[in-house]
Specification:
The protein is an alpha/beta fold and about 250 residues long. The chain has a single domain, classed as P-loop containing nucleotide triphosphate hydrolases (Rossmann fold, 3-Layer(aba) Sandwich). It is about 35% helix and about 25% strand. Strands 6-7-8-3-9-10 form a six-stranded mixed sheet, with helices on both faces. It starts with a strand and ends in an 8-residue tail after the last helix. Residues about 250-254 have low confidence and may be disordered.
Length: about 250
């Protein structure tokens, strides 16, 4: 059984006199430990789709199941518990708390879960080592580079061992070196601790790190490709071919 099942979801914005269909009858599933990228031009519906999966936004029609839970029906305390315990979300602009150190930002999620101090300390140090940020744990966000802040944000997202990690343009604010380092850490998390990751991106280089890419156009799934036994360079070339069909920018290079 799939970890995540998206079933015929639709999302409308506006009212009857001015109605916009952001998602138009999308269905797909994600298996446990998959790394899936979602690509599409600005306004294609890819971020709306991610927001519906994360429950930041609600669907107009259709259902989203995580394991056997229909998350489109969750409300109140059940919804809060789902967000706290089942999801990890990585934002493009990091969303770190400026008054807390990296250690405190990462530990916050476990503090909310009322974990013991020793358990929190052990978990923070393990995840910091996995993401290569042990040296910045005592630093505040203003003392860190963009790449370090994004890896701290990633550590905060995975420390609760969520069933699903969602990343919205995670490399959008990073230079190429920091982006590559973050994506290699995503691959490590996916392959070593079997983290299930769904990542929205407009960038072909970023998408080439995933195992499967869904292309969204006008609120629908336009195409899908899988990496299989391809090298990342071969997969990148296939992504570029589809991006070109979509009319996007194929000027990204490895």
């Amino acid at each position: 059984m799939a970890l995540l099942s998206i079933q015929q979801i639709e999302k409308y914005y506006g009212n009857r006199s001015s109605l916009t269909k952001a998602i138009d009858d999308i269905s797909f599933s994600v298996e446990k430990s998959e790394f899936v990228a979602i690509m599409g031009a600005s306004g294609s519906g890819k971020t709306t789709l991610l927001n519906c999966i994360s429950t930041i936004d609600s669907v107009t029609a259709g259902h989203i199941f995580l394991n056997e839970t229909d998350i489109t029906r969750l409300k109140g305390k059940q919804l809060n518990a789902f967000r706290r315990d089942k999801l990890g979300f990585i934002f493009q602009d990091f969303n770190l708390l400026d008054t807390l150190t990296a250690y405190e930002n990462i530990a916050l999620a476990l503090s909310i879960q009322k974990k013991s101090a020793s358990e929190i300390d052990s978990s923070v140090r393990v995840v910091a080592q996995q993401l290569g940020i042990t040296e910045v744990l005592r630093k505040y966000p203003y003392q860190m580079s963009g790449g370090q802040k994004q890896r701290v944000a990633s550590a905060r997202a995975i420390i609760t061992k969520p069933e699903l990690i969602l990343a919205d343009e995670p490399t959008g604010a990073l230079d190429s070196r920091s982006a590559k380092m973050l994506l290699e850490r995503f691959n490590y998390l996916n392959q070593t601790i079997e983290a299930t990751i769904i990542m929205v991106t407009h960038d072909s280089f970023t998408a080439s790190y995933a195992g499967r890419v869904l292309f969204i156009k006008d609120g629908k799934i336009f195409h899908e490709i899988r990496k299989g036994n391809d090298s990342r360079k071969e997969f990148f070339d296939k992504i570029i071919d589809v991006v070109t069909l979509l009319g996007g920018d194929a000027g990204d290079t490895l």
